[in-house]
Structures are given as C-alpha cells and as structure tokens.
Amino acid sequence: MGALDLTRYYIAALMGTLLTTFHHTTPPPWHQIETAHTGGIAASTLAWIPKHSRPKYQNICPTTAATLLIWDRYVKEHYHTTYISPALQIQALHVLIPGFDYSIWYNSGITCLSQIMSKGRLLDYDSISKTFNLPSKAYFTYLQLRSWVKKHIGGDSRHQQDNNLTEIEKICMAKKPPQKLLSLLYKLSGTQVPPKALKFIKAWEKELDLDIPNEIWSKVLAAHKHLTLNTTHIETSRKVLYR
Questions:
Q1: Any idea what the Cα angle at residue 219 is, between residues 217 and 223, rounded to 5°?
Q2: Which superkingdom is the protein from (predicted)?
Q3: Where are the domains of the chain?
C-alpha cells in the first residue's frame, strides 16, 4: 500500500472544511461559533479577501486561523487560484470597496460575483436588476462595483472565458460540493512549486556543489514516490531526502 503524504492530506482536509462552508444553507453550530469571533463574517468570505486587506481579529478561533493560514499559503501555489476572482463572495466587497453597501445585493439573493458576471465583466444594471429585483437605490453601488471589477478582474485574460476557471473556483461556485472532495483536493495539492524553490533542494545542491535542472529534480521526486511499497522504507527515505 502506498504511503499517504500527511502534509498534503492536512492541506486538503483544511481546504475541504473551508470549501464545504460555501454550500451550507443552514450554517452548523460550529460555523456559528467561528463567525462569532470574526464579526459575523464567515471564513469562506474572509478567504477571498487578500491577506493584506483582511481585518485582523484578536480572538479569532484557532481553527479559523489555521484554515486561513493554509489557504493563504497554498491556494495560489498548489491550486493556482487568485484572491480576486469571480468566486469572490459579495460580503467581502465591503472590505475591498470603501463605502460599499453589500447588504442591498446580498438581500436580493446575490452571494457571489459569478452570479452577475460574464467573461470577466459585470452584467449591465438592467439585466441584474430584472433578474434579482434590485431596488433603485442599488444603482450607485452598481457603479462602484463595475469600476472595481473593471480594474481588478476585467484585465485578467484568464477570466475573459467563463469556462476558464480553476478547480477551486468551480467548487466554490457550484450548487453543492463534488463527490470525494477530499480526494480531489489531495490530488490537486500535488501540483507543487518548481523544485528549485524548495529549501531542502537548495541545501542538497549546495552540499553537492551542483546545479541540477528542475526537470531532473522532478524526475527524482516522482521516482522517489514509487521506489518501494514498504511504508517504513518510504518514511526513512523521506527523512533523508527532506533533511
């Protein structure tokens, strides 16, 4: 039996816990406890706010802090997803857009930017208003939002096609989480950064006084996973490799 990469499993488990909150119609009790320490803002909303713009909470629950820490560290590195995205929760906008009243939109049933966007652009006001029955006072906030989307999302060529979404974005924007979510996230977490960026690789090259190409290191790391089925031998070899 192949050995499980515990680091990747831990990342996938925390990411999965966060992503399932996007699909809760009735928040579970533990979710309510967490949001009580973040001003009523869910972790699923905080996740889409860039770290440097995110509110600081002194009494944030350790579970929320750990989940956001993993998200900040790995969402781009392993899951190739950026903070500013069509999957961004509408509640996050009151932090990102000064003076923006998200409640008008949220109370009309708009919870995610993807509901009112197409090909990297915000839909026209009449179309949104007709679909979601927005009150007339929402027009000013629409102008604020349109300007922000044009600046932060419209220029990203990746979002100019509605089907050009990352797996994380698809999960967040779906009506329900996919089956075997943990397995999917574990698999996706294997898309690592180039080996040259890893500290233990740099240490080996310095000790060996060699400059080994990324392609060679990738082959070494891939082969290392399948050298033996003996979990004890795998654990020992990893300790040596990871120094």
A1: 120
A2: Eukaryota
A3: 6-81+166-188, 90-160, 195-241
| Distance of alpha carbon 21 from alpha carbon 135, whole angstroms | 29
Spatial separation of the C-alpha atoms in residues 146 and 116, rounded to whole Å:
11
pLDDT tens track for 15-72:
888 887 776 666 678 778 888 888 888 888 888 888 888 888 888 988 889 889 888 8
Whether the CA torsion 135, 138, 140, 146 is positive or negative: it is negative
Residues 6+ apart with CB under 8 A from 85: 48, 113, 153, 159, 169
Please name the helix (run of DSSP H) or strand (run of DSSP E) that holds residue 62, with its range, or none. Answer: helix 62-74
Q: Mean pLDDT lowest for which of 10-14, 98-102, 162-166?
A: 162-166
| DSSP single-letter state for residue 117 | E
124-137: burial string, b at 16+ Cβ within 10 Å, e else: ebeebbeeeebeee
**pLDDT for 131:** 93
Residue 79, CA distances (Å) to 84, 143, 148, 189 in order: 14, 32, 25, 7
Q: How far apart are CA 57 and CA 45, in angstroms?
A: 14
Q: What is the rounded CA–CA span in Å between residue 89 and residue 98?
A: 16
SS3 content of the chain, % helix, strand, coil (to 5): 55, 0, 40
Per-residue tokens: 232: 């004890």
Smallest CA-to-CA distance from 16 within 130, 183, 157 is with 183
Roughly how many angstroms between the first and final C-alpha of the chain, as a whole number? 24
